[in-house]
Design goal:
Radius of gyration: 12 Å
Strand content: over 45%
Helix content: under 10%
Shape: globular
CATH class: Mainly Beta
Oligomer: single chain
Bound molecules: FE2/S2 (inorganic) cluster
Structural class: mainly beta
Number of domains: 1
Largest sheet: 6 strands, antiparallel
Order of helices and strands: EEEEEEEEEE
Number of strands: 10
Distance between the termini: 7 Å
Strand order of the largest sheet: 1-10-9-4-3-2
Length: 100
């Protein structure tokens, strides 16, 4: 597991983009106090989901309006059809740890 951020950095309903050592950008999402992590790149085309909007459990892509459930990675609205990769999150002493 790797330490990527403090939970204090992500207010309720907000997101934070972090970058892994391999260059992959990951979006951390605060849904009602629980943190979920998904790949930051939309699976429809090459758009950063960080530029979109988190509404409840859904991240809305800013480019074409595709949506994904950040808990499961599942696409929930067209044109998104392919699931996002999700990462297991553990919180320890207010630190966000990702399992890769
Ligand atoms: S790039 Fe995200 S919906 Fe098209």
């Amino acid at each position: 597991m790797i330490d990527v951020a403090s939970i204090k950095e992500i207010p309720l309903g907000k997101t934070k983009r972090i970058r892994l050592a391999n260059g992959q950008a990951v979006l951390l999402c605060n849904v009602a106090g629980a943190i979920f992590a998904v790949d930051d790149q939309c699976t429809h085309e090459d758009a950063s989901l960080y530029l979109g909007c988190l509404k409840g459990e859904e991240i809305h892509c800013s480019l074409h309006g595709g949506r994904f459930n950040v808990k499961t990675g599942a696409p929930t609205h067209e044109p998104a059809e392919i699931a996002l990769k999700t990462y297991k999150v553990t919180i320890e002493q207010e630190r966000i740890l990702l399992e890769l």
